[in-house]
Amino acid sequence: MSDWALKDLPSQSERVAIVTGTGGLGFEDALALTQAGAEVIVAGRNPTRGAQAIAAIRQKSPDGRVRFELLDLASLASIAAFAERMVGDLKGVDLLINNAAVMKPPTRKTSSDGYELQFATNYLGHFALTAHLLPLLRRGREPRVVTLSSVAARSGRIDFDDLQAERAYRPMAAYSQSKLACLMFALELRRRSDANGWGITSLAAHPGISRTDLLPNGSGRRSFAGVMRTYLWFMFQPAAQGALPTLYAASSPLASGGGYYGPTRLGETRGPPGPAAIPAQARDEAIAARLWTEAERLSGAAFQ
């Protein structure tokens, strides 16, 4: 497994995949899956960037089946509208990659529904999206859901007393909480799928430290994090390399439900994909169940 590379991606022909996010890791996921023969829907909130992503993919895969669909994960109405379009358009979904994220806005921002932006986009939006797409996933061929976490989840804590960071907003703490929540969601989805017979394989992945625009887009290019990303780029592995754990989780017959995958070198910051260490707090099933119930309440979305 430690030498798994893009060439090992199995054929994805006759599979339908939805990938959230138009740049960075999402773009690399969509490109690889398109080249492997999947029908790919790239879902994002910026139509211009979406069109650019689709054009770039078609340049490399002229016969690829790929398209853009509008989806703002910071808007529960947009998520519901996207899912409604998919239900009307698709017979089933075989793969959902919950990838899109925002990272470390320097000041607290909120979604259109009034929730802290990182929690809303990274976790709650993907929770609601997966719930709305559950009927399509259940009709998919060996369906998988891969949810992106981060090495930042190691320092994360689910703060039910201040889940929306209203009392005290610390950018990295809020980001770490959101990514811990993503990992706990992937593990809890696996447990609930097994218990309810949904037939969905739920996995999690993280990209290590990768060269994407997530940091400068969130913190700003002139922030310390943005300057590091711009001028110390050699410390970050390429986005295509960072996407490999996700693609491994999405496609390998060796990737199992409830698994967590990431780079295998230098403390899981870079290198080929393999099993990642699950932080102790992510294994707390009572907290995971409580978080699930809270997410249903906040989003109004239910898995049924």
UniProtKB/TrEMBL annotation:
Xref: SUPFAM superfamilies: NAD(P)-binding Rossmann-fold domains (SSF51735)
A GO MF label: oxidoreductase activity
Pfam families linked: adh_short
This protein's UniProt keywords: Oxidoreductase
NCBIfam families the UniProt entry points to: PRK05854.1 (NF004513), PRK06197.1 (NF004846)
Protein name per UniProt: Short-chain dehydrogenase
Organism per entry: Methylobacterium hispanicum
